[in-house]
Design brief:
Rossmann fold, twelve-stranded mixed sheet, 16 helices, disordered N terminus
């Protein structure tokens, strides 16, 4: 429960004295910043609402897991209403870790991560005939081994909304603060999970947000903020990390996966001098090579190179600079008339079911969505008023590892949006000692990918793993392998 209002002033005074003492004269500005955030938190700790959900439209029985949904109000005037889904661990909710899962985009709903990646239910694609989608149990849900909060963030994502126009404006640097305040308030309202090991996790564009949220939690713990969180580390899949490095690494990836020839790879490296994202526009030889590379790859599925590319997917420009955000448009006519979908399957066909299900009034009522707040739910909202104002977050990784936090970085090795070779490059930049060299890891006696581990001066260090055959959101493509990977890592077992 939230602390009573009568105790708020006492808490503020105690923390103010403690933080100013720790910060000293040179750190008063930092201390005041944290006090400001604390004050906003404590003055609005009661601004939460929750719904216990026992059944869901499309699922034939009582849910075999504990599902809670709700809103937590954050922001200077509590105008940001962040919607969440909390699913208790189906193994041991008292001892299992607590994971905050942030879906990428930015602007992709928590339901995308819940229904298509690591949640305990998914759609029954085999029986879908154009009517209301049915739900089935996902046997490889991460909720088998962890308590998970799926959060719609930033505002404008999923069912999260703002009570003010200003609240809809967010960015790489604003969103993490709102998420941090959400988690503090959620834990104050759910104190029994305060002792559980805490991990912040996500994939794709969450690579920009997760390290920032993790560092905010660490800073808050150091400053003595309430509540103290049992933060152990973070997990990221195919993470957007360094804008230039991620994009520039695609050419190397194309060559490794035989999408371009040896001759073309050698030519473009020489002619462009290794710079493919922002080449010299006066260098015709370089631009010609990049144009040929684009011709070779533009019809390849960005998210999983072995799967078919949807015919309605937006064409990419003939350059290497085609952005950090990931999601394909689904035409309105396909969403509105799902029986008229393409005869040839592509993965986006699966996403149509989420539009049908989440926009159903009965579904929204069951989930506790506030009436009239969301007129048109989207799996990924492209109309966000969002500023991508961070070019790199590598320095956040450096600081977190220096402080001794654990990190699991994994990559579906068939993703050419954020290729694993680019992820390897920024990990190499960290210059961490290698303690477990490149080797295969196995699930059911079969190679599930390859892994290596790096040490730090304190803590468990960084584990990197590839998921063989995985795409941009690896658990969506290789659910069994990814569950094994996450469970072993959170249990401190070697992959």
């Amino acid at each position: 429960m939230a602390p009573p209002i009568s105790g708020i002033q006492q808490q503020i005074g105690m923390e103010m004295e403690a933080q100013l003492t720790k910060a000293g004269n040179n750190g008063k500005y930092v201390a005041r910043m944290w006090l400001h955030l604390l004050l906003l938190l404590l003055l609005s700790v009661t601004a939460t609402s929750r719904t216990v959900v026992e059944t869901l439209p499309g699922f034939s029985d009582t849910l075999p897991f504990k599902l809670e949904t709700g809103y937590v109000a954050v922001g200077e005037t509590d105008d940001l209403q962040l919607f969440y889904y909390f699913i208790e661990s189906q193994r041991n909710p008292v001892k299992d870790p607590l994971v905050l899962w942030l879906t990428g985009g930015p602007g992709c709903s928590a339901l995308s991560g819940l229904l298509y990646e690591i949640g305990p239910i998914t759609f029954d694609y085999d029986t879908f005939n154009g009517s209301s989608p049915a739900l089935v149990v996902n046997p490889y849900a991460w909720t088998e081994v962890a308590n998970i909060i799926f959060l719609d963030a930033p505002v404008g994502t999923g069912f999260s909304y703002s009570e003010s126009t200003e609240g809809y404006y967010s960015s790489d640097t604003k969103s993490p603060y709102a998420i941090y305040l959400f988690l503090r308030k959620w834990l104050l309202d759910h104190p029994k999970y305060l002792k559980n090991p805490l991990y912040i996790a996500g994939d794709s564009y969450s690579g920009v947000i997760v390290p920032q949220v993790t560092l905010l939690i660490s800073d808050g713990n150091i400053a003595g903020s309430n509540p103290s969180m049992n933060l152990l580390g973070y997990m990221l899949g195919n993470p957007v990390t360094d804008q230039h490095g991620d994009e520039n690494s695609r050419v190397k990836y194309y060559h490794r996966l035989t999408l371009i020839s040896d001759d073309l790879y050698e030519s473009v490296n020489v002619n462009c001098n290794g710079e493919f994202v922002n080449p010299d526009i006066t260098n015709s030889s370089c631009l010609d090579d990049i144009g040929i590379i684009a011709e070779c790859t533009m019809k390849v599925n960005d998210a999983q190179i072995l799967e078919p590319k949807c015919s309605f997917a937006s064409p990419r420009p003939k350059t290497m600079n085609w952005g950090r955000k990931f999601f394909d448009d689904i035409p309105d006519e396909i969403i509105q008339s799902p029986t008229k979908r393409e005869e040839k399957w592509c993965r986006n066909n699966n996403y149509v079911l989420s539009y049908m299900w989440a926009n159903d009034e009965i579904v929204q009522k069951t989930l506790g969505v506030r009436n009239g707040t969301i007129l048109d739910w989207k799996r990924c909202n492209k109309s966000l008023a969002y500023d991508s104002d961070l070019n790199t977050v590598v320095h956040y990784h450096q600081e977190l590892l220096k402080r001794g936090y654990r990190a699991l970085i994994y990559s579906g090795d068939h993703d050419m949006m954020i290729p694993y070779v680019g992820t390897q490059a920024w990990i190499a930049y960290l210059s961490l000692p290698l303690v477990d060299g490149w080797r295969p890891w196995f699930v059911d006696g079969q190679i599930a990918g390859f892994t290596e581990k790096y040490s730090t001066t304190k803590g468990d260090g960084l584990t990197f793993a590839t998921v063989k055959g995985g795409g941009h959101t690896a658990p969506e493509y290789k659910p069994q392998q990814c569950l094994e990977m996450a469970d072993r890592w959170m249990s401190y077992y070697a992959l």
